[in-house]
């Protein structure tokens, strides 16, 4: 269950001027008034927006995916002294986790301050202070994806080949639809037949409409989709673009063209520009964020495949050098393996 979809506000109650006068109610006869104690019925609490067991199950999968990184960092705190050797070992572990030089230096400086203020002498307690420092660094990345301010909300999705872009669009479509949003997909990856077919399968599974054409111009498909979304009263239009390497400048220019053409169909669009990143790419993920942000002005990230050999520390590097919000992170291919990003949960999972 996601919490990013903002429901439309309920209709306001009728004004007193237009409300019909209340019907006259005759007072009951004195003998009809009988004091009856109310039944002892326990109150029923409102259901939580996110099921704790489901969230906890996902956190367990995240911890399992980041276990290799967590165990390598945890070994630093198995000693008996807090000294320079501990900080040097921690620096090496953080760099190996793809945290990056700038973020590592920031975390170590912040950690030294926290240790001094807490006056702790237990190395095991330093691990908790590091989790706090990391959570504070990542908190600016924690931001919900809001749907409902525009109709339709146009979301343009980019990413390199193999990052899980089209699969992430399918998962996002499923969750949007489950929250009551009507979704229209735009298969703007017209050069790769498999991408169109894959997106068509997701459209069929989620019972949503799709705009596609074989071998057509990606910008034209995007324009048609936004126009159709407005005409059909859709809540969301999701535009799947072709995979691009940031070094392919002529192909990156095509992404800029798609964005310009979408703006012709809707002057306020695209309302969100998301980049899907493979969590296994390490520091290259930061390079991708910088390149795509320079070209498209990103509004959010989706980090996928944070399992297996994923190191995860690159989110700290992103927070330090290019703090684009992280809307979702994923740890597998299943639908439930994509969830909203929480800075403290991620920090604790990375260091568990």
From TrEMBL:
Q: Which residues belong to any copy of the SRP54-type proteins GTP-binding domain?
A: 325-338
Say where the protein is mainly found: membrane
Question: Spans of biased composition, class Pro residues?
Answer: 10-23, 36-52
Query: Where on the tree of life does the source sit, at the highest rank?
Result: Bacteria
Q: What are the coiled-coil residue ranges?
A: none
Q: Where does GTP bind?
A: 159-166, 240-244, 304-307
Which parts of this chain are annotated as the region Disordered? 1-56
> Where are the membrane-spanning stretches?
none
User: Which keywords label this protein?
Assistant: Cell membrane, Cytoplasm, GTP-binding, Hydrolase, Membrane, Nucleotide-binding, Receptor
Q: Where in the cell is it found?
A: Cell membrane; Cytoplasm
- Give the EC number(s) under which this enzyme is classified: 3.6.5.4
Annotated membrane topology is: Peripheral membrane protein
Which regions are flagged for Low complexity bias?
24-35
Q: Which reaction does it catalyse?
A: GTP + H2O = GDP + phosphate + H(+)
**Protein's job:** Involved in targeting and insertion of nascent membrane proteins into the cytoplasmic membrane. Acts as a receptor for the complex formed by the signal recognition particle (SRP) and the ribosome-nascent chain (RNC). Interaction with SRP-RNC leads to the transfer of the RNC complex to the Sec translocase for insertion into the membrane, the hydrolysis of GTP by both Ffh and FtsY, and the dissociation of the SRP-FtsY complex into the individual components.
**Which family is this sequence assigned to?**
Belongs to the GTP-binding SRP family. FtsY subfamily.
Q: Which PANTHER family is this protein grouped with? A: SIGNAL RECOGNITION PARTICLE RECEPTOR SUBUNIT ALPHA
Q: How does it assemble?
A: Part of the signal recognition particle protein translocation system, which is composed of SRP and FtsY. SRP is a ribonucleoprotein composed of Ffh and a 4.5S RNA molecule.
Name of the protein this chain belongs to: Signal recognition particle receptor FtsY
Gene that encodes it: ftsY
């Amino acid at each position: 269950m996601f919490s990013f979809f903002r429901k439309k506000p309920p209709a306001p109650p009728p004004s007193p001027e237009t409300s019909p006068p209340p019907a006259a109610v005759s007072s009951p006869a004195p003998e009809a008034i009988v004091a009856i104690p109310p039944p002892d019925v326990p109150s029923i609490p409102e259901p939580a927006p996110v099921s704790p067991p489901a969230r906890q199950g996902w956190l367990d999968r995240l911890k399992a995916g980041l276990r290799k990184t967590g165990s390598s960092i945890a070994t630093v705190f198995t000693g008996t002294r807090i000294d320079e050797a501990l900080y040097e070992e921690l620096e090496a572990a953080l760099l190996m986790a793809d945290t990056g030089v700038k973020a590592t230096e920031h975390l170590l400086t912040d950690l030294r301050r926290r240790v001094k203020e807490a006056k702790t002498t237990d190395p095991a307690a330093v691990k908790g202070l590091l989790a706090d420092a990391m959570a504070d660094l990542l908190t600016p990345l924690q931001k919900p994806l809001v749907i409902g301010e525009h109709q339709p909300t146009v979301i343009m999705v980019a990413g390199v080949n193999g990052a899980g872009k089209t699969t992430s669009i399918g998962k996002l479509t499923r969750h949007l639809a489950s929250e009551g949003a009507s979704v229209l997909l735009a298969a703007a990856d017209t050069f790769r037949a498999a991408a169109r077919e894959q997106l068509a399968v997701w459209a069929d599974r989620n019972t949503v409409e799709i705009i596609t054409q074989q071998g057509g111009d990606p910008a034209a498909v995007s324009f048609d989709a936004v126009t159709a979304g407005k005409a059909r009263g859709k809540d969301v239009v999701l535009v799947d673009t072709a995979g691009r390497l940031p070094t392919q400048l002529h192909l990156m220019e095509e992404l800029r063209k798609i964005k310009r053409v979408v703006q012709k169909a809707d002057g306020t669009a695209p309302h969100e520009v998301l980049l899907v990143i493979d969590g296994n790419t390490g520091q290259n993920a930061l390079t991708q964020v910088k390149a795509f942000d320079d070209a498209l002005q990103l509004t959010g990230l989706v980090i996928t495949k944070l399992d297996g050999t994923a190191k995860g520390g690159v989110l700290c590097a992103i927070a330090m050098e290019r703090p684009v919000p992280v809307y979702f992170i994923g740890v597998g291919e299943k639908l439930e393996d994509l969830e909203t990003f929480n800075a403290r949960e991620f920090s604790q999972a990375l260091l568990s």
